[in-house]
Design goal:
Blueprint lengths: L8 E10 L9 E7 L12 E5 L4 H10 L7 E2 L4 E2 H7 L8 H10 L3 H9 L2 H8 L4 H5 L9 H6 L7 E4 L10 E7 L2 E4 L2 E4 L1 H9 L5 E7 L14 E4 L6 H13 L5 E7 L2 H4 L3 H9 L5 E6 L9 H7 L1 H9 L3 E6 L4 H17 L3 H13 L3 E5 L1
Parallel strand pairs: 11-12, 11-14, 12-13, 14-15
Antiparallel strand pairs: 1-2, 1-10, 2-7, 3-6, 3-10, 4-5, 8-9
Helix pairs in contact: 1-2, 12-14, 14-15
């Protein structure tokens, strides 16, 4: 059986454990999921697709706002409107179609001007943090026909999470490391669709729809003697837990160096016990951590990388593979700039040549990114 987005496997959550401290600004949870009879085979670096359900409260509020009958069966779908909004359509992030339709049918000076002027930047700022209900509430008199409303929504999408386990160590299960996304705006509470579904609606024994998302561009070296440098702040550490477990099972001779960052050591040092275990078993040869808010001057992983610049460059010259996982827009950019600076200094070369050096590492598939 081939499991995919259209045909997901119904898997059981066997364990759920909060990793971050109760007082942390982050809510990070470790999930263990049974693979049962799925015959799913994954490798470190792969991701798991999870198909969520929307928040029931938000579904109910939208139905009440539009005065729909929640039990009304929509003929073309053969499901009730409640079932459709819970499991079939995206209701957290409004589509541009919906926003344009609403703007056309209400008088709202700011939104009307943004749509008329086609100002994508300001419209993006206006949309930020708002869901479908917020846009419906811009004018309490707005009414939308049920079929038109559904046509203005997009299908509910799966969410992908980096796998944080090795199948060699955990042959019958797959592990995920999930940061729950929550925020408040104008006295309303919001949550990421899938992260809050997992955090609030799933516990040990719950069934969730999953499928494998292979990532052949984020693999351990075929040569197990090669050293690796892993850079993964926050939940970016997930695939590297899998990497280290795999290297234990393979009895790899290559050295392993991890850069990990978070806000506070006391509350945010997730997988600390596991990392200590890796160190004690001579699998994790170097560990550099950066807890940005434990001191007045913020320290990030790129700062730790630069502090070890000569050693890092020596590892790269000796054939090390570089891996970066996590935030695409800030962290990965800063890490890349730091690596470029290190190469420029260590080789005493031009900026152009340092950029070419990194490009060559990517061509050799020795500088691999899993960023989002």
């Amino acid at each position: 059986m081939i499991w995919n987005r259209q045909n997901p496997y119904l898997a059981e959550v066997t364990s759920k454990k909060r990793l971050s401290g109760i007082d942390s600004n982050k809510e990070v949870i470790h999930f263990e999921i049974a693979l049962g009879d799925s015959k799913i085979k994954y490798e470190p670096g792969d991701s798991l697709g999870v198909i969520p359900r929307n928040n029931k409260r938000l579904v109910k509020d939208i139905i009440d706002r539009l005065d729909f009958n929640p039990l009304k069966v929509v003929e073309s779908y053969n499901q009730t409107i409640f079932q459709l909004l819970e499991s079939r359509f995206e209701i957290l992030t409004p589509t541009n179609r919906l926003i344009t339709y609403i703007s056309t049918n209400i008088v709202h000076k700011e939104l009307n001007e943004l749509i008329e002027n086609e100002d994508k930047t300001l419209l993006s700022q206006f949309k930020y943090g708002k869901d479908v209900l917020d846009f419906l509430n811009l004018d309490s008199n707005l009414k939308i026909d049920l079929n038109i409303f559904l046509s203005l929504l997009k299908p509910l999408q799966h969410r992908a999470y980096s796998i944080s386990s090795s199948m060699l160590m955990h042959p019958e299960e797959v592990h995920l490391t999930v940061s729950t996304q929550r925020w408040e705006n104008n006295k309303r509470r919001y949550g990421g669709v899938c992260s809050t579904f997992l955090a609030d609606d799933c516990s040990s024994g719950s069934k969730i729809k999953i499928f494998l998302i292979p990532n052949k561009n984020f693999r351990l070296p075929a040569d197990h003697s090669k050293p690796i440098i892993m850079i993964g702040p926050g939940t970016g550490i997930a695939p590297f837990i899998a990497f280290l477990q795999e290297r234990i099972c393979l009895q790899s001779l290559g050295k392993n160096w991890l850069f990990y960052g978070a806000q506070y050591r006391k509350m945010d040092h997730i997988y600390e016990k596991e990392l200590i275990h890796f160190q004690e078993n001579n699998i994790l040869h170097k560990l550099d951590v950066a807890f940005s808010r434990d001191q007045i001057k913020k320290i990030y992983v790129q700062n730790r990388i630069y502090e070890s610049r000569s050693k890092i460059f020596q590892w790269i010259e000796d054939g090390a593979y570089l891996y970066v996982c996590g935030d695409k827009n800030n962290m990965a950019v800063d890490v890349n700039s730091t690596l470029q600076k290190i190469i420029q200094e260590q080789l005493n070369c031009s900026e152009h040549d340092s950029i070419l050096y990194l490009k060559n590492l990517k061509k050799e598939k020795r500088y691999l990114l899993d960023v989002y």
